[in-house]
Amino acid sequence: MAGDVPLDHPEFDAIAKWYDFDYERRVRQDLPFWRDCAAEGGGPVLELGAGTGRVTVVLAKDGHDVTAVDLSPGMLESARRRFERAGELPGKVRLVRGDMTSPPVRGRFGTVIAPFRSFNHLYSVDRQLAALRSMRRRLAPDGIGAIALWSPNLAELGQDAGRVQVSYDRTHPSRGTRVVQRFKLQYDYAAQMAYVDYWWDEYRGKRRLQRDHAPMRARWFGRFEFEHLLSRAGLRPLRLYGDFRGGPWREGSEDLIFVFARD
Ligand SMILES: C[S@@+](CC[C@H](N)C(=O)[O-])C[C@H]1O[C@@H](n2cnc3c(N)ncnc32)[C@H](O)[C@@H]1O
């Protein structure tokens, strides 16, 4: 089917090396939201597209047993190192390599979540529906699900397209080197797809030590489109937010967050 991509997402293995440096400090505002979701739905928690375990570890510290599924061996390896460093936690964590359209897990979960835009990496309607239907299958009858989607500001997307821009220029905390991340964005409005090339250059003084490159892509969704997808998968939206503080979804919101239950 047009729009389908290979299932192995090699871009995430390239990104795994820089992921925590890029996001660990910058993205924290969503953590109270995921803690509240897990408190509301209860355990155990199934997390899809768990990446390096940024959210997983917080939920395990709260005492939840978490099954964390991700497709990328590189991301899972970073998660494994995170849990090695963390030592014994009140909740048990199980890291599972798998595709969120058919996660290799059994049983029912009080809370099923897909944090920080993982779902934007399902590019075809077939794969989106397969993922939502498996979320439904894994949800306990009175459990809750939540998905946080990227929702681009389309006016800004148009302005940014095609130019190489610096996203950050900062010192690496453990290596003391200077890291500059650049990106170039392109988009296909008709396909609702964004394509972003990322480059990381690491310098010691004036000498460049290394350059990494990762081409990324993401599918964006309209609010009503996603409500229809949920409904086709037998899921009922309970709440819709435009940010992690519980603000409404409106023009300019860059997060599109759904909390839902089995229909
Ligand atoms: C933007 S990262 C988010 C990671 C993590 N949830 C967080 O909050 O930091 C997206 C993650 O989704 C994973 N992913 C993408 N497509 C997937 C799929 N079909 N099944 C499972 N994981 C997937 C990627 O490997 C990546 O780790």
How do the helices and strands line up, and which of them pair or pack?
Elements: H1 10-23, H2 31-41, E1 45-48, H3 56-61, E2 66-70, H4 73-86, E3 93-97, E4 109-114, H5 125-138, E5 139-150, H6 154-160, E6 164-171, E7 178-188, E8 193-204, E9 207-219, H7 223-232, E10 235-241, E11 255-262
Parallel strand pairs: 1-2, 1-4, 2-3, 4-5
Antiparallel strand pairs: 5-11, 6-7, 7-8, 8-9, 10-11
Helix pairs in contact: 1-4
The structure holds S-adenosylmethionine.
Q: What does the model show?
A:
This protein has helices spanning 10-23, 31-41, 56-61, 73-86, 125-138, 154-160, 223-232, and strands at residues 45-48, 66-70, 93-97, 109-114, 139-150, 164-171, 178-188, 193-204, 207-219, 235-241, 255-262. The protein has a seven-stranded mixed β-sheet, sandwiched between helices. Helix 1 packs parallel to helix 4. It folds into two domains: 11-151 and 221-262, 3-Layer(aba) Sandwich (Rossmann fold), CATH 3.40.50.150; 165-218, N-terminal domain of TfIIb, CATH 2.20.25. Helices cover 29% and strands 35% of the residues. The longest helix is centred in the N-terminal third of the chain and has 14 residues, at 10-23. The chain has 263 residues and is an alpha/beta fold. Bound molecules: S-adenosylmethionine. S-adenosylmethionine binds at residues 9, 12, 23, 48-51, 54-55, 69-72, 75, 99-101, 115-118, 121-122.
Key terms:
binds S-adenosylmethionine; N-terminal domain of TfIIb; globular; 263 residues
